[in-house]
């Protein structure tokens, strides 16, 4: 379990911190806190609860909605100058990563819960 969350935190932070600093006036530490917060929240809600009970596509769609709302709210709250297209770009980048990450989780360790399956 520790390896899975570390992999997700490292790659999400590389993607998000880079995009936040590139596309807005975010400084490193607030961008890092935002990336870590989104990653941990997403891991607890989607990767541990939804993914074992649903498909990769459904879990990835939930991650996309969560990422958009989280990035939009924190960018507005922190006063970052992110346009709608920049927020969507960050959301798409996270979503692509999440799809690949979920596939890796399914192949290497997450147990599918057949009794609680959502179709």
From TrEMBL:
InterPro entries: DUF2512. The chain crosses the membrane at residues 5-22, 28-50, 57-75, 81-101. The keyword Membrane applies. It comes from the Bacteria. This is DUF2512 family protein. Keywords: Membrane, Transmembrane, Transmembrane helix. It comes from Paenibacillus woosongensis. The lineage of its organism: Bacteria, Bacillati, Bacillota, Bacilli, Bacillales.
């Amino acid at each position: 379990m520790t390896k899975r969350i570390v992999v997700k935190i490292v790659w999400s932070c590389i993607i998000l911190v880079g995009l936040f600093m590139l596309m807005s006036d975010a400084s490193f530490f607030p961008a890092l806190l935002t990336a870590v917060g989104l990653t941990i929240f997403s891991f607890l809600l989607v990767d541990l609860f939804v993914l074992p009970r649903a498909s990769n596509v459904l879990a990835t769609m939930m991650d996309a909605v969560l990422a958009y709302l989280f990035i939009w709210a924190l960018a507005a709250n922190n006063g970052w100058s992110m346009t709608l297209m920049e927020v969507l770009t960050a959301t798409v980048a996270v979503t692509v990563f999440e799809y690949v990450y979920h596939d890796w989780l399914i192949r290497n360790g997450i147990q599918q819960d057949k009794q609680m399956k959502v179709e």
